[in-house]
Amino acid sequence: MGRSGGAFRGCLLTLAMVAGAAALAQDANPPPSETDYTAFDLGELTAMDVVYGAASYDQKITDAPAAVTVITGDEIRAHGYQTLADVLASVRGFHITYDRSYHFVGVRGFGRPGDYNTRVLILHDGHPANDIIYGTAAIGPELALDMALVKRIEIIRGPGSALYGAGAFFAVINLVTYDGDELDEVEVALEYGNRQRRGARATWGGGAGADASVLLSASGTRTDGDDIHWPEFDDPATNNGLFVDGDHEKVGHLYGKYRRGDLQATAAWARRDKRIPTGEWGMIFNDTGAAFTDERLSLDVSTSRRLSPVSNLRGRLSYDDYCFEGEYPYDFAEAGDPVDQVIQRDTSHGHWWSGELQWSSVIGRRHRLVAGADFRRSVRARQESAAVEPRELYLDVEQTLENTGFYLQDEWSLGGGSSLYLGLRHDDYLSFGGNLTPRCGLVTHIGASTTAKLLYGEAFRAPNAYELYYGDGMTQKGNPGLEPEQVRTWEAVVERELGEQLRLSLSVFDNAITRLIDQVVDPDDLLLVFANVGDARTWGAELDLDARLLPGLRGRFSVSAQRAEDDATGTLLTNAPARLLKLNLSTPRRNKALAGALEIQHVSRRTTLAGGASPAYAVANLDLTWWPPLKGLQADLAVDNALNQRYADPGAGHQLQDTLAREGRRLTARLGWRW
Known about the structure:
The chain is mainly beta. The protein has a single domain, classed as Maltoporin, Chain A (Beta Barrel), CATH 2.40.170.
């Protein structure tokens, strides 16, 4: 709690810079966010680039106290994005790592190898989706939401703990889904690709009586994947480094959404079965029994009630279920002895309730207040590790995980086109106690075309159950003494409209991270353990140009220059690219027989754990869409990594590989029919 003094000094400095503007302010105008955006249809909202997650109510991007990117459903379909990882790879400041098991997201140069995306918060229509065991923000196929159902994705950079609590460390990503009556159709889609990829999806959306709608969807994919050669295992005893049939994957999704007036109920389920083709954790190489399963279920009911013309009450109650099961074959034979193979099975079961109650109101002509409380409590949070046959128990721990939070935010209209955002949140955790998180930001509109934002915020990440308690005694151990890691962020943003078709954004940021949690080797017993290893710092700048030259014709170009380093030594962190370049172009898709999209991504070299480097790379992705004369029919051909670029990502501590090769060219053909 002593850290709050520095937090308030940061906010006081921001207030001092605001004082001059406030003294010269004209008569206050109503806050821009007082507009009722729910009255607009999808096309109008898209044109205005509305974001919800930055302040917990709808507002234009230029009014939001953050650097925000909105990816629309049209863009998702134009580029043929299959996962959230595909989307984030196209956005400024984000880079994606894939170790042939999971996709990991790095933000503004910070991407620790082996971290399960615990420093990013994922929301589905405002529902927190990070699981209670690992704190994972799922961005790959295991995400419990098909990208075809997403209306827009709000990518909100910077610390968000002042509103959302732990996990909103570097970014908050809110996926907003379609309502049934917005689709108002039946769609059946089939897909086929190289590596024997097969998939199918069926979706129905429509009205369900007065002021009600229903959306239902089911989808599944199956991929055989590659036979992969790993030079680190290039020995006759390990099949000369060739892992055969180890990249197999099966994924299934079910989704339902019901809306009637202000009442909304959603149900989402996903299951992913994946073989592990890397021989990690010292497992037997080229054994297809190395595999894991992720299964997720979420049930969410939310409603809102207008208490007066200027105030609103919103409530949410959710139940989530996450199950993980992994099977790992090991050979514990001594030299000269017959093979003594053991299957180790790890299981994690997390079942929890969460809820939120939020009140918002416009007070006079100057203030818009948001106040709320939320909670999360586990019904079950169990981790088990055991040898299968003969059964030998290595780990069996179950904890009660519980946290509550209270927050208050004020959007204060200063007049003259300026608004000041002040926020404060207090969290209380059963595992480590309390935490106070502030944020403040000044948003100033300079004329009709330029917006400047000065932002200060803090965030924290609570150690999760896996980091605290998992220990099988053979490869790693738990650390119940972990403390939360913290980040303090300064950011300046300038957004300028260059006519009606172009928008230019420039962000400069500085993140100071303390008590960083990372996995290290304990020299006393050579076991991996999570520890608070010290401090880190990331800083840099991002330039983004968004062009909408014609209806449906869109282009985005961004450049990111960034550095992530150990604060004590100044050495570069691993998996920290210094430069990112992104280019996205898509042609109009309405009233045309053909449309296309092009994407180019460049990621600079990254340091690896062994002190080597994964070289810089650039990939190009293409998508071509054809609408045959038959009404409702649509055909897509997507070519990812079209030039078959050979590149790799840094490995993690539990992998022998210093770098892990990414997939080569991927072709996917899709055929859909809507009526």
